[in-house]
Design a protein that fits this description.
Helices cover 31% and strands 33% of the residues. The chain contains eight helices and 17 strands. The protein has a five-stranded parallel β-sheet, with helices on one face. A five-stranded antiparallel β-sheet has the order 12-11-10-14-13, with no helix packed on it. α1 links the parallel β1 and β2. By secondary structure, the chain is an alpha/beta fold. The longest helix has 17 residues.
């Protein structure tokens, strides 16, 4: 079994490596990585391992961000000092959620669970089931409101979402606007990150609605998007430009 350890504290990474060897000397730790950026780059350039063993809090953010930037269809075991992220962890193909300090007993339990699942599902079955499972996580339509009337809007026809004074609007590609009862944070969880990107705190846009991208002041980018009015400036902050380019080229 090929394993990657993602942990920004070197003593903790070394402990995990030692525990894995105690559990099964045949386990091969192919890399120890420390950040979201390093992990995304590695997984884009190398064959994916059989298992990711990763901490949730990394030096450059929560490790959930990794899975917004790449498609990873293999098992994951999370390690963390906090228990409030369990629900988020199991939205990914997570085998287990181990609280620190990690013991040999807790790690062995997670690894044994993985072995049991591997026996129950062949590799071919997993490859067929996981993409369908991942796709089913995301919403296929939304219920939008105009006055007292309600409308169904398929995600394929959405241009963008806009937050304005605590009200969130869905705008379709014809420019029709609907009120939706979701926060921007909740929408990020419900929308497929392969197609949707959060530009800033006010806008989430569908990739097929983007008509033009051009440079803007202070190393930012400005988008022209289907359905958007002239008063709606969709600007990507300088801090998110690199992430946007990576997403656009995926």
């Amino acid at each position: 079994m090929r394993v990657i350890i993602i942990e920004d504290e070197k003593p903790a990474a070394e402990r995990l490596k030692t525990l894995l060897m105690e559990y099964d000397p045949a386990v091969e730790v192919v890399a120890c990585l420390e950040s979201i950026e390093e992990t995304v780059l590695y997984l884009k350039q190398h064959t994916h391992p059989d298992l990711l063993l990763l901490d949730i809090h990394l030096s450059d953010g929560h490790s959930f961000e990794i899975f917004k930037q790449i498609t990873y269809n293999k098992p994951v075991i999370f390690t963390t000092a906090y228990d409030q992220y369990a629900l988020d962890a199991f939205k990914i193909f997570s085998i287990d959620y181990i609280l620190k300090p990690v013991s040999l007993e807790s790690l062995a339990g997670a690894m044994n669970k993985l072995k049991s699942l591997s026996v129950s599902f062949s590799a071919v079955d997993l490859n067929r089931l996981l993409p369908a499972w991942q796709q089913s996580r995301y919403k296929k339509r939304f219920l939008g409101k105009v006055g007292q009337r309600l409308f169904f809007i398929d995600t394929d026809n959405i241009a963008f979402f806009q937050a304005d004074n605590k009200i969130v609007y869905l705008v379709d590609r014809e420019g029709n606007r609907y009120v939706v009862e979701h926060t921007m944070e909740k929408l990020e969880e419900q929308l497929d990150p392969e197609y949707y990107f959060r530009l800033n705190r006010r806008f989430i846009v569908h990739i097929e609605a983007i008509q033009q991208v051009k440079p803007y002041f202070n190393s930012r980018l400005k988008l022209a998007v289907k359905g958007a009015g002239q008063t709606e400036d969709m600007v990507i902050s300088r801090e998110r430009v690199a992430e946007f380019k990576m997403w656009a080229e995926a």
